[in-house]
Amino acid sequence: VDSGKSTTTGHLIYQCGGIDKRTIEKFEKEAAELGKGSFKYAWVLDKLKAERERGITIDIALWKFETPRYYVTVIDAPGHRDF
């Protein structure tokens, strides 16, 4: 359930060049303001206000990016039983 799926996926997207450093820094600042600094990578996929406040994924999210070799599509799904 709360094992870090969104955080791991967001970090993978960043490490593969799917999102820029400036955006991650923005998420880090915003997350820190809510006392959730470690959630900066999860916020790549967790866009809803409720997701960010509660620290859980509520809705599925899709992210597409390209590497020099591949076209990648990542789907993040809720792990919490209520969603």
TrEMBL record:
One of its GO terms (molecular function) is translation elongation factor activity. Residues 1-83 form the Tr-type G domain. SUPFAM superfamilies: P-loop containing nucleoside triphosphate hydrolases. It holds the Pfam family GTP_EFTU. This is Translation elongation factor 1-alpha. InterPro entries: G_TR_CS, P-loop_NTPase, T_Tr_GTP-bd_dom, TRAFAC_GTPase_members. It comes from the Eukaryota. The keyword Protein biosynthesis applies. The keyword DNA-binding does not apply. PROSITE patterns: G_TR_1, G_TR_2. Keywords: Elongation factor, GTP-binding, Nucleotide-binding, Protein biosynthesis.
